[in-house]
Amino acid sequence: MQIMITFKTPDAVEYALEDEFSSYERTCGDGECMDDDPNCPDCEEVSLKVDEQMEDARTFIEQFVQHGEMVNILFDTNENTATVIKRR
Asked: What predicted TM-score, i.e. pTM, was given to this entire model?
């Protein structure tokens, strides 16, 4: 038997991305800068790379999650599988 379930969880993607990327280092690591120092070009470059990684993750997730909150999962009880369905 196959059962399709749609979950709607507002802001789930944003919360997950914030949780994941909040621990990423955003400083240049020279020890002289404060966290995410806006006056340090090296810190700015590191921060931009983290932002780019976060945007790449968001773009990937958007293949499966509609409007940042809805995901379809197909459960197959015969095969004992669960498959996330790409959005249309």
From this structure: 0.74
